[in-house]
Amino acid sequence: MNGTVYMVPVTMGESSVENVIPSGVISNVVRLRYFIVENTRTARRFLRAVDKTFPIDDSVFFELNKHTKPDEIEHFMQPLYNGNNIGVMSEAGVPGVADPGALIVEYAHSKGIKVVPYVGPSSILMSLMASGLNGQNFAFNGYLPVKGGERVKSLKHLEKRSLTENQSQLFIETPYRNNALVDDIINACMPETRLCIAADISLDTEYIVTMPVRLWKKNKPDLNKRPAIFIIQA
Amino acid sequence: MNGTVYMVPVTMGESSVENVIPSGVISNVVRLRYFIVENTRTARRFLRAVDKTFPIDDSVFFELNKHTKPDEIEHFMQPLYNGNNIGVMSEAGVPGVADPGALIVEYAHSKGIKVVPYVGPSSILMSLMASGLNGQNFAFNGYLPVKGGERVKSLKHLEKRSLTENQSQLFIETPYRNNALVDDIINACMPETRLCIAADISLDTEYIVTMPVRLWKKNKPDLNKRPAIFIIQA
Question: Is the ipTM of this complex over 0.90?
Fold first, then answer.
């Protein structure tokens, strides 16, 4: 019988494992010996944080990132055909959403292999929960275009969609460009459009505030190098 | 100083608390004495499952649902102004997303009250993680129209958007109408469009499968009365 693919969450930054990962998940993860991971060093560090005696040297880590070639994925799956389970881990938070992990899941489904998602921290979900914006209809748009003109156009498009479809719009930016993005949102969006800025989710420095754009103008936070999610709703 | 609003997850169905809620979250929740909940009976049952000695009778439960009037919300917030923390709980999974909890959060932000999201199970997030479909760009659309013609139109619209914007499209249905929805998807969507059906997330009967529509035609699962999430991507 084939093994199962487990989608294993990790912490986001320096938060304590107990606060963000259920104990039942941890008990199961420490039994795994095969892993497909976005970054081997981070994955090993996480497993050691979870269990000081975890047998890192008796475990196998396959690295899945933008350099991975399609034919390598078939190789990563071999342990499953031998009846072993595999854990998939991203660099931060839950895997399979904003990381390459979905490739493994897609492949698993094509071979009839079972995939089980575990509960863990997600900045997308947690920012939405704490935003007060529409969670009954929302879209996560990933990164917006970097170039000024295209980005303003994209922001106006998302703002309009949030109004016409009553769909709140989430997006992210490379952390060192967060402050520039906030400036663009303030300039591109209407004064009454609500903007939620959620930074450092699950960390001691967590910051989640929702206000109309006109109030953000006078209260711009410094988000430089802080992982953040942005949500707008007109 | 004002209290804090904590977004408290609960189990989805009969899963064990240890598997879906971090121990650090549980330790904090059992210290709360004020709750704003979608259903008081479910909330009390959850607190007893978490801690047999939880002082239910010394705690205050405000019920927030579609019958709640706007002026009641101001009343619910009073404990916060007195420095007490409040936990918000929905009927299943994390609050503030597909439930009325967002109203409380919106109100809290308007008063400058801090909101903290806790980690817990979300069928939206977990189905996406285990679907293999695009998690870098996705939309949750809630319920589709019930009437046949409108529903087919809506499905075709979402399928087209998934293609033109490369945005996977999630939606739900009242569980007793799931089988009819699957028939509509199979009829409305193109044979190669991928459909993920995720049912009973986090339960022993969990079922998550992604296949092209043409393969679902011959392998229709019975989803009657099982909570399910549907994801399409053309």
Answer: yes
